[in-house]
Target: TPR repeat methyltransferase
Amino acid sequence: MATSTGGDPHLERAYTLSGPEDARALYDEWAATYDTDLTGETQGYVAPSVTADAVVTAAGTGIEVLDAGCGTGLVGVELQRRGVATIDGVDVSPGMLERARETGAYRDLSEADLTAALELSDDRYDAVVCVGTLTHGHVGPVVIEEFARVIRPGGFLVATVLDDVWESGGYRAEVDRLCAGDVLEAVSIEIAQYRSGQQVDCRLLVLRVR
Model:
């Protein structure tokens, strides 16, 4: 695996997860130190800030947002700082959700396994944001179509895909398929900083639902 972890044992485990139960156990254990481990200079986890900028640029601030794989709430906090007031979050880890709740950035938080169908109605949100979840050992590309289902027509999916799995993990092929099938329109797909301290990049997707 090419992605640098900077020797962080939690990150090393995160990139070799075997499924949702394994993910829940890791992130429950990691919840207390996750923010400090990732946002310091060693890792420089800038993806939440970069992605929040992209959400606001694409969709504005007067929107309802689902933060899918919200973790401790780093993305929700960045969205709130930019003026987005209505944010719901889902995550596989109760421990992470408890930390997200403490931020005060979210209207609603609930546990969800993103490898399964979401218990949400069609056309529920103006935008879905997903940061740090489309990566090694986490959630595969099939979730992109499920995200599109819960976004209102004309709304946006803004997501990071770790750069070294963008093609090998099937994410590019799935985005191409959904765009060809008139489910999504690619507004932009750019290389962006992800963990700047380790020179790890991502593909930052801004996709409009047709």
